[in-house]
Amino acid sequence: MPTAATDLTVAAVVEHDGKFLIVEEYASGRRVLTQPGGHIEAGESPEQAIERETLEESGCHVSCEELIGVYLWINPQTRQQYLRLAYRASYLDVDESLALDQGIVRRRWLTLGELKSRRALLRSPAVLQCVHDHTAGRRTAPDFVSNLLSQGRDGDRILALASRL
């Protein structure tokens, strides 16, 4: 059976005062918890996408820092593949006046324990894995993303490159 094209996304892991920035949103007809993130727009770097998506989804200004890792998740219902570039981002401030993206319910700050206790509400297992890798100090080589993006949106080549991590 052919698989769907791999969807390349970014996600921000933002830790502030011992809690992680999470957005509560509607996805596939259910209310879920996830990190701020989304797709990279044309002409945008992954780091720029992190900062833009985090602002749009949470109202928080962040500074994108290091690449934590690359995560593949295949949605068990749709078989859609998601390749997530997760970055550590530093919290700067929040603009309470901003309207959040459509589908976003609210921003939340949760501890690792609170995230674990809400595992069933997470959009994907990658949400918790990114936080675990962040707290363990995992970081990926800075040139990995430029190598990945030079492969275009060819799912087989992207997955082969990601498997070398």
Secondary-structure element series: EEEEHEEEHHHH
Number of helices: 5
What portion of residues belong to β-strands?
Answer: 35-45%
Mean of pLDDT: 87
Query: How many E strands?
Result: 7
Report on the biggest sheet: 7 strands, mixed
* Residue share in helix: 25-40%
Backbone shape: globular
Q: Compute the separation of the termini in Å.
A: 26 Å
Radius of gyration, CA atoms, in whole angstroms:
15 Å
Uncertain runs: 154-165
The secondary structure category is alpha+beta
What's this entry about, in short?
Helix content is 27%, strand content 39%. It is an alpha+beta fold and 165 residues long. 30% of the residues are buried.
Mind explaining what this structure looks like?
With 165 residues, the chain is an alpha+beta fold. 27% of the residues lie in helices and 39% in strands. The protein is built from 5 helices and 7 strands. The chain has helices at residues 46-58, 112-117, 125-135, 143-149, 155-162, and strands at 6-16, 19-27, 30-34, 37-39, 60-74, 81-94, 104-110. Strands 1, 2, 3, 4, 5, 6 and 7 form a 7-stranded mixed β-sheet that branches. It is globular and about 35 Å long. The two termini are 26 Å apart.
